[in-house]
Amino acid sequence: MSSHQIPPIQSSASNKQAEDRKKKRDPILNLDKYIDKRIFVKFMGGREMEGVLMGHDKLLNLVLDDAVERIRDSENPSQMTEQTRRIGMTVCRGPSIILISPLDGKQEIENPFVQ
Question: What is the pLDDT along the chain (115 residues), one digit of tens a residue?
C-alpha cells in the first residue's frame, strides 16, 4: 500500500463557484461620485437629513458632514416644518436608510395624492 493520498476530485462547476465568490463584486449603488457633495437622506421612521457626503461603506453606512435634520410637524407627522436642527458630522446607519438623493438638481413638487 502506498502512503500517498489522492486529492478529492472537484468539478469545474464547483471551481467556477469558488472563483466567483472570490471576485470582488461591484456595489449596486455607487456613491463615489457624490463624495464632497450635498445629499438628501430619508430614514425609516420619517426622519430626513441633508449634508455633505464624506464617506460610505458597502453596507451604505454614510458619513455626513455639516448635516442638518429637517423637523416634522408634531401635530401632523406627515408634514415637514421649516425648522431644522444642525447635527454637524454624523454617521447614518445604512440599514435604516430608505432614500439617498443628490441635492443638485433636486426639486420638490406638490404631492398629487394629498386631498
Answer: 555 666 665 555 566 666 666 566 666 678 898 999 999 999 998 899 999 999 999 888 999 999 999 988 888 877 888 889 999 999 999 999 999 999 887 677 787 888 7
Query: Which of 26, 28, 38 lies closest to 101 in space, CA to CA?
Result: 38
The correct CATH number of 31-102 out of 3.40.50.11540, 3.90.79.10, 2.30.30.100, 3.40.50.970 is 2.30.30.100
SS3 call for 8: coil
Is residue 64 within 8 Å of 88, Cβ to Cβ? Answer: no
